[in-house]
Amino acid sequence: MDERPVAEGGEGWDARPMLAAERGGFIDRHGLWSQRQYAAAAQARRVIDELGLELVRFSFADQHGVLHGKTLTRAAVPAAFRSGVTAPSSLLLKDSSGRSVLPVFTADAAHGFAGAGDVVLVPDPTTFRVLPWAGKTGWVLCDLRFPDGSAVPYCTRSLLRGQLGRLADAGYDLTVGVELEFHVFRAEEAAMAADRVGAPGAPGRPPRVSPVSSGAQLLHEEGLDRVDDLVQLLQRGLQRLDLPLRSIELEFGPSQLEITLQATGAAAAGDHVMLTRSAIRQLCHRAGYHATFMSRPAGTATASTGWHLHQSLRSRSNGQAAFDPGPDEELMSSTARHWLGGLLAHAPAAAAFTTPTVNGYKRYLPFSLAPDRVLWGADNKGAMVRVVGGGSDTGARLENRSGEPAANPYLYIASQIVSGLDGLARGTDPGPPTENPYAAEATLLPRSLGEAVTALAQDPAFADAFGRDVVDWYSRIKRDEFARYLAHVSDWEQREYFDLF
Question: How far apart are CA 306 and CA 355, in angstroms?
Fold first, then answer.
């Protein structure tokens, strides 16, 4: 964010400290901003004025981790910083195709959603950024409220903050590190073809693409150099967006890349993933590429993509790393062991959040560097959770390797807190580490999204933490997505049976 003051005598808005002009609006009446947010709003308005921004995107993350929102003109931004921006509540009731799953025009419509009435997007000005690829345009993330000021229970960004509050009450803060794999292809279509136009419940044909790298050579320096234009594009865009980019790497599969982000607090990490994924897709689209965070696109069977989530706790009372082993402990502390025990105990239910798409379960294969069962290992990349870093400068941490890169980051991280806190409360023992992650007798990870949603609905820890209504809402949406998949006649079925029987 630009720290320079507005030029004296400029024709910009009043940017006095704490944004006094914003007092009295919806946000102020309901006490939705902290003093830090008021100060950040003043700074955002100074930047808008000084840089002459003409548009600002107000965005929120839906249940699938996809950004929705509105783009406001410069003249409309002050009112949005006072009272938010309205949007249809039905956006929270849709599956991944855009089809509304839950009723809004019937007598049994969910409270607060009847008639597809509005929710209010409340901007968080601490997330304000200037887009480096769109001219004179800003970007800000939002939380959701009902028009009476009450919380929207299905706001995923708020759900994460609620779980971080529970963790703080237990005496800890969570640090998260992100390894995010994805594919980038060269786009072969310059314009939108008619058969790409779909409808809710029936998306159109995906774009035609071609590979940008041949694969088979992990971390191949010359291979990465061959896509240097792409690497430079992503590096410039993400760093100018003030995202904590750490590395860009060439992965094993054709057209497969990975980025890592510097470890940060969990709330910031969720925002960073939301912004990073959207930024990569937008940057690539403008440059003639197609980026996707789908885990296993057609034609990439040699290597699926995952999202490895590193996590560690720090004591709020003394700032000490809570996962580091003590003098008589190996690999990790007892706190880390119990947290790990919780991750394993609730892994089938948490899979609905770590792997929330039908496609992601096709990644759970033996001997693939992706897990297929609920196990932990000491620096073992075949296990679901890898314990790494004990005794090092970075400190002990747990790496959950089960997630897919399409996961909603707020729900993925929140699922780890729900699981870990239950492990701490119960003193759950994770058992011994595995040395044979694909051969050991252990609980298998869910084989499908349907199995994961059933496990979630039956796990009381998530109902207690999120509320039964939230679990039922999410389960209903994901069950509908899975049912549409089961009802679809696939190319495989047509090839297998049409001429045989």
Answer: 9
Compute the C-alpha angle 177/59/52, nearest 5°. Answer: 105
CA atoms within 13 A on the CB side of 95: 23
Secondary structure letter of residue 269 according to DSSP: H
Supply the DSSP symbol for 176. E
Residue 219 corresponds to which tokens in the numbers above? 């971390």
User: Distance between CA atoms of 13 and 27, rounded to whole angstroms?
Assistant: 19
| pLDDT of res. 253 | 78
Which residue positions in the chain have pLDDT lower than 70? 1-23, 107-112, 214-220, 223, 300-302, 391-393
Q: Each residue of 149-208: pLDDT tens digit?
A: 999 999 999 999 999 999 999 999 999 999 999 999 988 887 777 777 777 777 777 778
What is the C-alpha to C-alpha distance for residues 266 and 457, in angstroms, rounded to an integer? 25
> What is this structure's pTM?
0.92
321 vs 333: CA distance, rounded Å: 10
Give CA–CA dist 209/106, Å, rounded. 43
- Name the helix (H) or strand (E) containing 313: strand 307-315
- The contacts of residue 77 (CB under 8 Å, 6+ apart) are 45, 48, 56
What is the crossing angle of helices 347-354 and 334-345, to 10°? 80
The two tokens of residue 28 are 């102020």
Chain center to CA of 370: 19
What is the residue-averaged pLDDT of the chain? 90
Residue 482 Cα distances to 98, 304, 378, 438, 449, angstroms: 14, 20, 35, 27, 7
Residue 133 to residues 240, 262, 279, 464, Cα–Cα distance (Å): 10, 23, 9, 43
CA 486 to chain centre: 26
Tell me the backbone φ, ψ of residue 191, rounded to 5 degrees. Answer: -135, 160
How high is the pLDDT of residue 218? 66
- Return the CA Rg of the chain: 23
Task: Say if CB 42 and CB 16 are below 8 A apart.
Answer: yes
